[in-house]
Amino acid sequence: MRRRIAPIVLLTALAGACGSGDDPGAGKTESPSEATAPAAPSAKAPDTDGPASTTSETVRAIPAVPISPAAQQPAEPGNAAAPVDPRAERLAAIESEYDAARNAFFAAYRAAFEGKDNPTLEDLQAFQAANPEPELAPYVARAKALLDEDATDVTALRAIQWLIENSPSPDTTAPWVAVLAQHHAQRPELAELCDLLVRQGEVAFVERLLAESPHVDVRGRACMALADGLKQDIELARNLAEANEGDLEGWTSFLGAERVAALRKLEPGELERKIEKLYERVVAEFADIKVGAGTKRETTLGARAGAELFETRNLAVGKPAPEIEGQDLDGVAFKLSDYRGKVVLLDFWGHW
Amino acid sequence: MYPHERSLVEKYADQPFAIVGVNSDDDLAELAKVREKERITWRSFWNGPQGTQGPISKAWNVRGWPTLYVIDAAGVIRYKSVGANEDALDAMLASLLAQTEPPAAPVK
């Protein structure tokens, strides 16, 4: 579940990775996520799955944008008792070999910079020259060969998922989504792919799933993913609006000029109403659908959408801040309203 | 973020300004070392042993870290951001503090 990072971004990401929390751009999301260019350049660490995440956490100048936790738990193909499918084995080999190559790359990075607080750009360039990032193309070719043999079985679906997850930029996902639409649009497994598809810009296909899937889980996850995706767009648009020239350059190399241009034209007000309607629809039609089953983030779409609506209605600019009552890090009770009369920077932070 | 926050604390020491954290680390002992090393002098709520799934971040629907809010002297939200854009944050704080009367008596 991880993506290649454009070299310039990788360099800044690597620089950030050494900042141990000091990096102003270091953002984290609650999902154990990956470096997904448009939507999740940064991810919270606690239960991430590998060094790629560690790097992505700290992409400088590209603040955190949350993604859904559900995207991280694709259903396993088949079950353990089923006879082993040689195609599934081949796909598993592609995935594990690519992961191993990337893990080796990041291990080399850690070994090179362990304990170095601020590696220079020259250090990073020298490192990259000596340790080229693993090439994705050979793995893509192997996954594509699986599809060329048979694009219709569950392994094909999982291969498409892997290809989409690992597409270096959203504009390279289209051929895989076309195969998905042609052979798999009716499958219940697509519930787990909605977040990923939206993140990769495949909004039209997810809208189609919301309208046409025979499975309520797929429609529900599609609805939620569309709303979450639009919310991220607003956040990205705000980040772009605030970005200085250097940040903008980073954003453009990360998101692509076309997407940056589209985001800069967004009308947040209009979009906010659309988002609210989608979350309301989730609450009305899909509230009981479970997400993140078996993880500590297990919840329902209704709970998630309800929290989003609460935020929209009560935590927006111009609204009175809700009270916080709690204990400080030394166990002493205090309240947010103790600070009335002062301008307060309220910082949800963690060191991890 | 810490150096910038330290600089804000310093810059606005004489003004009606405070940083209030909501910390989502689950290990307070480990965090105590970080607070000392990073000279984190400002106060934080603790989000509890569930870490990022704790009650305060849940109530505020925080799903990305850091999430920042700026609240004015009257308790109204004036700015929010997932991730830190220091320039935008500084501009907002400066403009709000320019409009905020220093308290007659020191505020706790």
Task: Please give a structural write-up.
The complex is a heterodimer of chains A (352) and B (108). Chain A is mostly helical. Chain A has a domain at 7-73 and 86-215. In chain A, 53% of the residues lie in helices and 5% in strands. Chain A contains 14 helices and six strands. Chain A has a two-stranded antiparallel sheet. A two-stranded antiparallel ribbon of chain A has the order 4-5. In chain A, a hairpin with a 7-residue loop joins strand 2 (290-291) and strand 3 (299-300). In chain A, helix 3 (86-113) packs antiparallel against helix 5 (137-149), helix 5 runs antiparallel to helix 6 and helix 11 packs across helix 12. The longest helix of chain A has 28 residues, at 86-113. Chain B has 108 residues and is α+β, with helices and mostly antiparallel strands. Chain B has one domain: Glutaredoxin (3-Layer(aba) Sandwich), CATH 3.40.30.10. In chain B, 36% of the residues lie in helices and 22% in strands. Chain B contains four helices and five strands. Chain B has helices at residues 2-11, 28-37, 55-59, 86-99; strands at residues 17-23, 43-46, 64-65, 67-71, 77-82. Chain B has a two-stranded parallel ribbon. In chain B, a hairpin with a 5-residue loop joins strand 4 and strand 5. The mean pLDDT of chain B is 90. Chains A and B meet through strand 1, helix 10, helix 14 and strand 6 of A and helix 1, strand 1, helix 2, strand 2 and helix 3 of B. Strand 1 (28-29) of chain A pairs antiparallel with strand 3 of chain B, so a sheet runs across the interface.
